[in-house]
Design a protein that fits this description.
This protein is an alpha/beta fold. 16% of the residues lie in helices and 29% in strands. Belongs to the transferase hexapeptide repeat family.
């Protein structure tokens, strides 16, 4: 089985570990959890005492051909940087999909994390390194780019489009044909009816751009 490392520490990394341990029970899952990787300056004392904390990238001995999951939910620029660094090392990025999910599309990139009870319809498109945090819905022909974070209960309906590096708050919703560009923050509960371009703080029902970020 291939070694699978988690880059990151804290609660989100533990959530991912729980998914991996569940997936390891399935016959077609070809990965085995190898340990957590994180720079020591970012690791809390109790996490550093874990036997499966391996230290930083050098100390972990992760190597070409191994696989890694990026447990980074909010700092999307840093997530992109680490993806590029690991790619230069020849590391692989499997999609981690909870067994409860219904992911019907085959148009999906790499390094995505799709947590419990998500549904992705036929003809939807998912790029790479996205987080679907649970109970998310992507309708038919909905599309999402790279390095996005969708918190719980976010829904995207038919033909909705999302670019790169956006953060969606809990229970926000893109109605059919709504569009979001790049590097936006969408407040919890926002309802997107129309098109927004880049670098906005978006909130409300109907959603409006509140400020530039």
């Amino acid at each position: 089985m291939d070694k699978l490392f988690i880059f990151g520490c804290g609660g989100y990394a533990i959530e991912i570990l729980d998914m991996i341990l569940l997936l390891e029970k399935q016959k077609d899952f070809r990965y085995k959890f190898a340990g957590f990787i994180a720079d020591r300056e970012f690791v809390e004392a109790d996490f550093a005492q874990r036997k499966d904390y391996l230290g930083n990238i050098t100390e972990s001995h992760i190597a070409k051909g191994d696989s890694v999951v990026l447990a980074i939910a909010k700092n999307l620029n840093f997530k992109q940087k680490m993806a590029e660094n690991f790619r230069q090392m020849g590391v692989n990025f499997p999609n981690i999909i909870h067994p409860s999910c219904y992911v019907h599309t085959k148009d999906i990139g790499e390094g995505n994390i799709i947590e419990i009870y998500c549904g992705v319809s036929r003809d939807a498109k998912i790029g790479s390194f996205n987080l679907l945090n649970g109970m998310n819905i992507m309708g038919h022909h909905a599309s999402i780019g790279d390095f996005n974070s969708l918190n719980g209960y976010v829904s995207m309906h038919g033909y909705a489009q999302v670019g790169d590096k956006n953060i969606f708050g809990i229970s926000s919703c893109l109605l059919p044909k709504a569009q979001i560009g790049n590097n936006n923050i969408i407040a919890p509960g926002s309802i997107i009816y129309k098109r927004f371009r880049d670098d906005n703080l978006i909130s409300g029902n109907p959603a409006t751009a509140q400020a530039k970020i």
